[in-house]
Amino acid sequence: MRKFNSLSEQDVLALAISNEEEDGRTYADFAQGLRETYPDSARMFEDMAAEEGEHRRALIDLYVSRFGSHIPQMRRQHISGAPSYQPAWKIVPRGIESIRRQAQQMEGDASRFYLQAASLVTDAGTRKLLGDLAEAELGHQDRAVKVEAERLPGDARRREDASARKRFVLQIVQPGLVGLMDGSVSTLAPVFAAAFATHSPWNTFLVGFAASIGAGISMGFAEALADDGKLSGRGAPFLRGLVCGLMTTAGGIGHTLPYLINAFWTATAIAGVVVVIELAAIAYIQYRYMETAIFSAVAKVMLGGALVLAAGVAIGNG
């Protein structure tokens, strides 16, 4: 790794060219990844990639006029303290907001990097060069804002935000909620039946742990195999299955863990409190993301949970 303040003016200019090339490719990749689902944002990133291309050509012309046609290889990862970013193929699946945040970070980080570097050098020519680069990056930020305003007027931005929220609900919230409901409610009967039948916290824990793991595996496979997501827009089956399975297991484990306490009535009381918290969380998620009236959500979830809990206690005492 090289320190930035050890670079020559030639190296700094070569690094600037490399940065513009990498940023331009990233914006082009963003545009390609968003073309089908967010066409307005895709066009915005196409414009930003074109801007980076113009800056790169200007920097190359300046470099050739000062140092000749050979541009040495210089990359961000070669410089200590330089910002680094995840590739577009990792960012695009995370959604439009993650892409927008990375784009803003890229321009802001580049500007701050050059400004900090300019403050460390004493050579007038180098300071001027670094200052010009910092101003260019600030200009990129201003241009990004203008491009976004042109390409994403209020209506388009709201449409894309609504589409992103819908995808989040379909691909993450919905399978997670199904899993949480199944894990929290369906395991109540075996856990509390085992608890009141044996009065043994450890045996109850083993039953609850096994039920939670088994339910998580079953629900994960069921969700993944039910729909490939191509027609429904619900996303990758693996992701949905993973989310559903993990949330199912988490829902069952929550009221099982208190039975690690070697005092039956204490563990049972704490488990009861956890059950109320789990059911309240399910009701809130239904209210927050599924547009279910809060009182309706609470009533249905609490009633269902109470019936299953009562069934488990009755069976355990039978």
Structural class: mainly alpha
How would you spell out the order of helices and strands?
A: HHHHHHHHHHH
End-to-end span in angstroms? 71 Å
Poorly predicted sequence stretches spanning 5 or more consecutive residues? none
Indicate how many domains the architecture comprises: 2
Which secondary structure elements does this structure contain, and how are they paired or packed?
Layout: H1 9-34, H2 39-67, H3 88-91, H4 96-118, H5 124-151, H6 154-186, H7 188-198, H8 201-226, H9 237-254, H10 264-289, H11 294-317
Question: What can you see in these coordinates?
Answer:
With 318 residues, the protein is an all-alpha fold. 78% of the residues lie in helices and 0% in strands. It has helices spanning 9-34, 39-67, 88-91, 96-118, 124-151, 154-186, 188-198, 201-226, 237-254, 264-289, 294-317. α1 (9-34) packs antiparallel against α2, α4 (96-118) runs antiparallel to α5 (124-151) and α6 runs antiparallel to α10 (264-289). The longest helix is centred in the middle third of the chain and has 33 residues, at 154-186. The protein is elongated.
List its traits.
about 325 residues; mainly alpha; Ferritin; 2 domains; 11 helices; elongated
Q: What's this model, at a glance?
A:
This protein has 318 residues and is an all-alpha fold. The protein has two domains: 4-152, Up-down Bundle (Ferritin), CATH 1.20.1260.10; 159-317, no CATH class.
